[in-house]
């Protein structure tokens, strides 16, 4: 089953995780 929507969501989540990881790193 092709799920482009899920793939988009996963990519967005990964981008968000990276963004937050950078935020935390800068705070510390």
Write a brief structural summary.
It contains 1 helix and no strands. It is mainly α and 28 residues long.
Number of strands: 0
Helix content: over 70%
Tally of helical segments: 1
Mean of pLDDT:
87
Shape: rod-shaped
Cα distance, first to last residue? 43 Å
Overall SS class: mainly alpha
Radius of gyration: 13 Å
Query: Which stretches of 5+ consecutive residues score pLDDT under 50?
Result: none
Query: Which range does the strand content fall in?
Result: under 5%
Order of helices and strands: H
Largest sheet: none
Notes on the structure:
It is a single chain. 86% of the residues lie in helices and 0% in strands. By secondary structure, it is mainly alpha-helical. The longest helix has 24 residues, at 4-27.
List the helices and strands and how they pair.
Layout: H1 4-27
Question: What attributes does this structure have?
Answer:
28 residues; 1 helix; mainly alpha; rod-shaped; 86% helix
């Amino acid at each position: 089953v092709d799920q482009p929507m899920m793939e988009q969501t996963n990519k967005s989540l990964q981008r968000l995780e990276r963004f937050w990881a950078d935020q935390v790193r800068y705070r510390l």
